[in-house]
Amino acid sequence: MDNFNFYSPTEFVFGRGTESSCGALVKKHGGTRVLVHYGSGSAVRSGLLGRVTDSLKAEGVEYFELGGVKPNPRDGLVRQGIALCRKENIDFILSVGGGSAIDSSKAIAAGACYDGDFWDFYCGKAKIQKALPVGTVLTIAAAGSEGSPDTVITKEDGMEKRGAGSDLLRPKFSVLDPELTFTLPAYQTACGATDIMAHVFERYFTTTKEVEITDRLCEAVLLTMIKETPRVIADPKNYDARANIMWAGMVAHNNICGVGRSQDWNSHGLEHELSGLYDVAHGAGLAVIMPAWMEFVVDTDVMRFAQMASRVWGVQMNFEDPKSTALKGIRAFRQFLHDIGMPINFAQLGAREEDIPLLVEKLGVGDGVRWGFRQLTAQDCADIYSLAANASLS
Amino acid sequence: MDNFNFYSPTEFVFGRGTESSCGALVKKHGGTRVLVHYGSGSAVRSGLLGRVTDSLKAEGVEYFELGGVKPNPRDGLVRQGIALCRKENIDFILSVGGGSAIDSSKAIAAGACYDGDFWDFYCGKAKIQKALPVGTVLTIAAAGSEGSPDTVITKEDGMEKRGAGSDLLRPKFSVLDPELTFTLPAYQTACGATDIMAHVFERYFTTTKEVEITDRLCEAVLLTMIKETPRVIADPKNYDARANIMWAGMVAHNNICGVGRSQDWNSHGLEHELSGLYDVAHGAGLAVIMPAWMEFVVDTDVMRFAQMASRVWGVQMNFEDPKSTALKGIRAFRQFLHDIGMPINFAQLGAREEDIPLLVEKLGVGDGVRWGFRQLTAQDCADIYSLAANASLS
Questions:
Q1: With CB atoms counted within 10 Å of each terminal CB, which end of chain B scores lower, N or C?
Q2: A243/B1 CB distance under 8 A
């Protein structure tokens, strides 16, 4: 096990009706002038936004609204938010929505405390030193952004999708009410589930030896997702299944499953180019990329893939041919993704094989390599895209 | 799943040599005048205390020392610590040791900010409203106190053992260096492992339905302990096995495994009377009590015990007779405890069957019941003690 720091100070308030505690939570965490930042009109139409602002009013907290966050949130709206924070002396950002709204809020929180352009944090030119406090009311179980230090933003100019992170961006509080996810369509629910599982797999495939506790925690989240995802697809208002998924989404990404071990975020990196270029859902892109990445890297550590197959997918271990077990595990994963309604190849996703050179170019690997469980050259990345393009269930 | 709040704000610094960061961590968390509170001479002899105080000196932090914490920490030393904090205007308590040193530190932290007698918090007369910040350097993986809001103190007068808790007592930081546990004797190592597993079982046996994520997280910790405990007993300087156990001990008790579900702390309650009366190790008492409690309550939810047997102990499910599976799981647990060197009945623990009426009297159940997975009357408690007194491996 490697040395590590683990710090997850967010106060999580979980369960039915908890959004009514927003006002009190903002006040407790020092907010007096709040930017309420949200996405589509669904938060307005469902009445959620009204309940949230009522709870702010009840506590006498002043607030300003900024809606319009899109999936794959854009830099333009972030800049609007930063300007609004400065103009109105905002001291707290309350995010209402899914990962996109939260990531956009985090970007505003960091940008509002920075003299330069906020994109400096995303292109690696500057490190986040200060940020406004952020609270969240989560409406989609997926990104794990409600408990994570991470944020991903897409630059409209060139549709470049990049991430940044800092413990300063960990939300002060996150309100998680599973009932808010009842109305989420099956496709988006499945995209979220795929993202949650990917967050675990990116930690599970490690080169660090002897990390039983985090291996087992990863498997715990995956087994939960395998049980609960088909249940919510079949029965969207199943509270307990929604609740298990919602909490699993937090556990998958606050890094309790990833400490003390090397991680591999190449599937996320390869996917970002897909959702950047085609503006498809991140989870759908992951469903296409991740099993292909697994197939490409399986020989790096066959026994680790066999462990996944056996412990997570219930594949009987073939002790004479562990690789056959490993491959059965990867096939089981792809079959699961198909069964919950996810695309499994480029055609189903709406991507084009002839764009692979462009995708690889945008990755920017050049003559170098992408670090990870297995280091990837530009040609390796092209090969993975190619496997993903042509994947099938057979 | 039940509604819940989860808040675990401790900064964990984990790995080899991390105790040298103590001074910087105290400073970061606002400490300027520190009480260094520790247990036996082993922290002095091993040089650990010197490394800790060197690191405080290097940061220019003033400190005062108070050693002498015993296992089952006593109220007398807590009162000394409170007096010292007041006299020296202490603003931070740094605990060096295992659960006893940390629990004693938490008691001092709360007591120093309270006008009445600190025992009021432990006998239910008062609620903790304020506490000095606490940091820890952990030397025994067991109590989970390094990440928990809990503290247990024994009153010398009558050897009454009682607990208190508050999120205010969650440590600001905890330094976990697995190498510090290399010199821990096999018996104490096994006691610690038993305590860790008990913290999980007290959460696992719930009456709340549909809590797959926390069930799986509980099982993750148990499976880790089953793998790693025999390894450290056989090879005390196995860094990775020590590391997995040390982190499992934190995960077992910061409540990430217990949120959203009813819990049952009757085994801990029944054990406290044993370690209070005989001054035996808490983990050893749990090894005697917990399997007996399981045997007594198994009919309350046979399928939950069968799930434990199957998922945790690898028992083949008997679908025609689930109770036989459940009982095999309990037997496997007791066998495991025996194999790691724990006592499994009163004689091996040094307790006496004829004291059972006294133990039950001290529990103070009277004509009421103890709340839990199954409610327990005074007679039920006597029956569990009796099962524990006469337990065997057959």
A1: C
A2: yes
